User: Which sequence fits this backbone?
């Protein structure tokens, strides 16, 4: 944003002040996330920069919090070599939580992406009836306060068959709360709006005549979908899937209400850690998660550019 | 090839035999009907694509919430387990003093409930309206083991004097019907007196209205703050060349992609009394070493952390609208003699309103229902209505109350959501 040559001195002064203000706001946005990275290498159990850290003394830094992450919950943290890693893999609380988060996130993303992409394809057709109302319902899991969603799920998942009694059936079935399936379904529900939003946004620029061209050349609807439509909307689908995964990976309220300790996830483990006795080990987890989100952000950004390129919108 | 046959254009036979003959398809059907049929089929196909997801959302999301909200006006904890005394209440007018028949019915129901071990549930239901009632029911239940002899009034009063309380009888009358509006009244800090008139509860017990007001006020404040902070940077991002603005955009998107718990944790760490912000302030000499500020576990903590967390939701819609504003309008205004302030106020700012509306509504909707951040950094003065719902769900176990509060919160969110759809359109919701 260049200043015009006719700007008065006052305007110039204001312009530089404005740039400084913007710099401060960007600092406010990013500093809290970056500051925890050095703090997680603190050698002392404090949440501030110790004098040793400020003078960049190597004594002030350590990996002890990362080590404590690994050993927390292990049977025999003093073991050597293979035995240590086997123990960590089966017993360490954070590793268990990470495994749970990944399993739940993967399947929730799968459900959300498959159903969400199909629905987005339907919603983008001009013939779709009641488009607006249906879209509003499908996006609502993102809008309705999480605590309300979690409360509703709490009752429903503890006795899913109660629903059938409304239509006069009295079947017996188990609970969904406290099971992996329950948490996966809950997270899929929460991730769906993100898939719908990103895939419909990709389909806005989609040229429907490509489908007709494929059909006129003899392709069946299935072949048309997999060979023509899918490659074009794939970046949007992947971005939506990543959003759904992050939603599941970051979700704690529904987990608190419907999961059993068996389904402990990373956010829930963090939640417990923060509520009970916050230690710098939490900062070590936070640092790892920040690195994870940087990787995700990069992926999404690359996908966006690719999508713009293959859809003929030039990247600027 | 099925697709081709469906397409009406492909199947039209141009029977140009005579002017005035109705257009027909190759197999001789009127074209209008064939077209209508094919459009119906296309609608059905589009709907079938959406159907699995719609069914999924209805079953796992809409119906569970509906079921939960039902608890706000339906609670049969008393009426189901105390059938005889409920029948007596149904047969008599409000304000009728309990006669011996009522006491007999009560004694019979209490004995049955004590045997069925449901008396705790009954007491809990009455306890919602009259605190202390639960222990009255459970202690009476324990004393009932030996059975009761008439006259029942004296027998029950012999176990516990508390049974003669007119407030208790009024509360039982209220609970004798499973449908009740009392939880909504309680959610608005209202209650019924012995004659069934609605009045405000004691001043010391008024919490919910204040909490709703605080939730709305803090959400409004946070929306305002995100606007003040988001507007300048969205403008900068929109006016910089793409290459630079894409780089700066990362600073907005990284927080957006970072875990909510991570962001909340970092604010907890920064704002502590022994934290980095206080250290810097002491080092700068702004405050003394012994006057470190309490910036967390109170409203300040909630406001700072939530403003930071919701800021990207304001910047992104503002940015996407500002990108489309043609800079020549402002230049034209300047060339016609407007000062830069006037040009901004009268020409530029009005064009940003769609983005501003979208961002503000989204931030407000999200803020009103926030739970995690206030629970972790809010202390007692920074709690919002969501935290109260969680408290009723997990510690007081007054699920009907939680449902009534949830219904009120949900109603306000849905009104805002409807407004968002009308003003912005859900299709225009963008993420990153």
Assistant:
């Amino acid at each position: 944003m260049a200043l015009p040559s006719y700007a008065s001195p006052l305007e110039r002064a204001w312009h530089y002040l404005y740039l400084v203000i913007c710099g401060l706001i960007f600092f406010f946005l990013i500093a809290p996330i970056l500051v925890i990275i050095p703090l997680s290498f603190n050698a002392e159990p404090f949440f501030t920069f110790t004098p040793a850290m400020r003078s960049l003394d190597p004594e002030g830094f350590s990996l002890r919090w990362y080590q404590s992450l690994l050993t927390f919950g292990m049977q025999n943290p003093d073991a050597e070599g293979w035995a240590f890693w086997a123990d960590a893999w089966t017993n360490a609380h954070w590793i268990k939580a990470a495994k749970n988060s990944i399993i739940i996130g993967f399947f929730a993303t799968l459900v959300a992406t498959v159903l969400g992409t199909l629905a987005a394809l339907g919603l983008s057709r001009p013939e779709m009836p009641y488009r607006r109302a249906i879209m509003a319902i499908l996006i609502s899991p993102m809008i309705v306060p999480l605590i309300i969603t979690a409360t509703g799920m709490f009752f429903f998942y503890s006795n899913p068959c109660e629903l059938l009694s409304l239509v006069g059936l009295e079947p017996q079935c188990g609970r969904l709360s406290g099971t992996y399936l329950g948490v996966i379904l809950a997270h899929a529900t929460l991730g769906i709006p993100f898939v719908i939003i990103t895939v419909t946004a990709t389909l806005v620029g989609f040229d429907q005549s490509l489908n007709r061209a494929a059909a006129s050349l003899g392709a069946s609807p299935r072949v048309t979908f997999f060979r023509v439509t899918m490659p074009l909307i794939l970046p949007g689908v992947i971005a939506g899937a990543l959003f759904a995964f992050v939603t599941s990976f970051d979700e704690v309220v529904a987990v608190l209400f419907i999961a059993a300790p068996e389904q402990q996830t990373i956010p829930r483990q963090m939640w417990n850690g923060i509520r009970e006795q916050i230690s710098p080990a939490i900062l070590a987890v936070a640092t790892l998660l920040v690195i994870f989100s940087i990787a995700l952000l990069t992926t999404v950004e690359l996908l966006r550019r690719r999508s713009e390129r293959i859809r003929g919108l030039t990247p600027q | 090839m099925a697709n081709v046959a469906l397409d009406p254009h492909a199947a039209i036979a141009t029977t140009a035999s005579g002017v005035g003959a109705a257009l027909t398809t190759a197999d001789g059907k009127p074209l209008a009907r064939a077209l209508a049929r094919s459009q119906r089929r296309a609608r059905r196909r589009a709907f079938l694509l959406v159907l699995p997801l719609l069914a999924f959302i209805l079953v796992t999301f809409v119906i569970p919430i509906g079921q939960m909200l039902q608890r706000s006006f339906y609670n049969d904890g008393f009426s189901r387990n105390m059938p005889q005394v409920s029948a007596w209440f149904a047969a008599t007018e409000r304000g009728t003093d309990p006669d011996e028949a009522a006491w007999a019915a009560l004694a019979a129901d209490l004995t049955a409930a004590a045997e069925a071990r449901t008396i705790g549930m009954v007491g809990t239901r009455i306890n919602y309206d009259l605190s202390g009632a639960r222990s009255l029911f459970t202690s009476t239940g324990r004393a009932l083991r030996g059975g009761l002899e008439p006259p029942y009034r004296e027998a029950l009063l012999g176990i516990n004097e508390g049974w003669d309380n007119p407030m208790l009888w009024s509360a039982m009358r209220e609970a004798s019907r499973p449908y009740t509006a009392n939880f909504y009244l309680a959610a608005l800090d209202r209650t019924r007196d012995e004659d069934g008139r609605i009045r405000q509860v004691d001043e010391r017990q008024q919490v919910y209205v204040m909490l709703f007001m605080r939730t709305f006020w803090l959400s409004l404040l946070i929306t305002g703050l995100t606007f003040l902070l988001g507007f300048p940077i969205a403008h900068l991002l929109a006016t910089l060349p793409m290459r630079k603005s894409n780089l700066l955009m990362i600073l907005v998107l990284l927080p957006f992609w970072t875990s909510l718990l991570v962001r909340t944790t970092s604010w907890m760490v920064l704002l502590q009394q022994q934290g980095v912000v206080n250290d810097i302030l002491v080092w700068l000499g702004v405050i003394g070493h012994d006057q470190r500020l309490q910036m967390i576990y109170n409203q300040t903590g909630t406001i700072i952390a939530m403003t930071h967390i919701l800021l990207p939701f304001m910047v992104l819609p503002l940015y996407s609208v500002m990108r489309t504003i043609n800079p020549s309008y402002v230049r034209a205004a300047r060339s016609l003699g407007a000062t830069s302030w006037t040009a901004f106020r009268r020409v530029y700012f009005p064009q940003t309103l769609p983005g501003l509306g979208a961002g503000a509504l989204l931030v407000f909707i999200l803020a009103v229902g926030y739970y995690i951040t206030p629970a972790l950094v809010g202390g007692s003065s920074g709690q919002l209505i969501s935290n109260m719902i969680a408290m009723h769900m997990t510690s007081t176990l007054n699920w009907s109350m939680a449902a009534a509060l949830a219904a009120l919160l949900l109603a306000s969110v849905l009104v805002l959501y409807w407004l968002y759809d009308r003003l912005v359109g859900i299709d225009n919701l963008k993420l990153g």
Notes: The mean pLDDT of chain A is 87. DSSP finds 14 helices and no strands in chain A. Residues 74 and 88 of chain A are 6 Å apart (CA to CA). Chain A touches chain B through 103 residues (CB under 8 Å).
